[in-house]
Specification:
single chain; alpha+beta; six-stranded mixed beta sheet
Length: about 280
């Protein structure tokens, strides 16, 4: 079984568009212990057999998804034998269309398996172009994305405790970005120089997700969820990840997160509420 980890954007700055017409962004990302499970078996068939199971399987196109795309790319570039076919089952535990990168994560960890964790910069660029610009974010457990093409590993891997709330909203990344009218400025501070967890948390508190206000206008309940998380005991800050719709809170310790989860679940019984931590 392959663990395909989710990611969370601790903050997100949307900068001016680059020459290709894409928004440049800056963000800090952590991989979380919330993961999908992927099983792979070589089969004697004419076609691959791709099957999705689990809570979020219904929202995935069984014919056109990150797994089928990844296999096509691997064969196209002769990275796996075109004659070999596989039975691949993905147990979907990560909410989809939620800002947690589940689809890209599945692609990354599948490709890592076939390439034995050896992915060159040339190949990364190919996968980014054909699978999505967030492919590179899964290179490290804790990273700072300086721009669309440059992701730096943050050596300090602080353990952070999270509550995630999925409000059953499917956010279209393309649609959300199309509504961006104002652009932020690049970071002035060097995140690599932050040496302690307390200083890092203080820095994160003062950052934002530039897409959050756009999503809140379309879906007012996002703000209500974030406000509910924020007032919980020992919550450092609450925010939305990526282009949404998962809302999260960072807590000082695991016990505080567990106690707060009970309170949040009582008030939001119809939403998926999860405890997670950075890996």
């Amino acid at each position: 079984m392959i663990k395909s980890y989710s990611k969370i954007n601790l903050f997100l700055r949307v900068l001016k568009k680059n020459n290709a017409g894409l928004h440049n962004i800056q963000n800090c990302t952590m991989l979380l212990d919330l993961h999908d499970l992927i099983s792979i078996k070589k089969i004697n068939r004419k076609q691959d057999e791709i099957k999705f199971t689990g809570e979020f399987k219904k929202k995935i196109n069984s014919k056109n998804n990150s797994i089928t795309k990844s296999l096509n790319i691997l064969r196209k570039h002769n990275l796996i034998d075109k004659k070999n076919k596989y039975r691949i089952t993905i147990d979907k535990r990560i909410p989809v269309f939620a800002g947690l990168g589940g689809g890209t994560s599945n692609a990354v960890f599948l490709i890592k398996y076939f390439l034995k964790n050896k992915i060159s910069e040339k190949l990364i660029k190919i996968f980014e172009r054909e699978l999505g610009s967030d492919f590179r974010l899964f290179s490290f457990r804790h990273s700072f994305q300086k721009n669309l093409k440059k992701v730096l590993r943050l050596k300090k891997r602080y353990t952070l405790n999270f509550i995630l709330v999925y409000p059953n909203i499917n956010c279209s990344t393309k649609q959300i970005y199309s509504k961006v009218k104002k652009f932020n400025l690049p970071l002035k501070n060097d995140l690599l120089k932050i040496r302690t967890k307390n200083k890092y948390l203080l820095y994160l508190q003062n950052e934002t997700n530039d897409l959050q206000t756009i999503v809140e206008k379309n879906y007012p309940k996002i703000k209500r969820i974030l406000d509910l998380i924020k007032i919980q005991k020992n919550c450092v800050f609450s925010r939305m990840t990526g282009s949404g719709s998962v809302c999260f809170g960072v807590f000082l310790d695991k016990n505080s997160a567990k106690l707060s989860l009970r309170s949040i679940q009582k008030k939001l019984p119809n939403y998926r509420c999860i405890i997670a931590k950075s890996i």
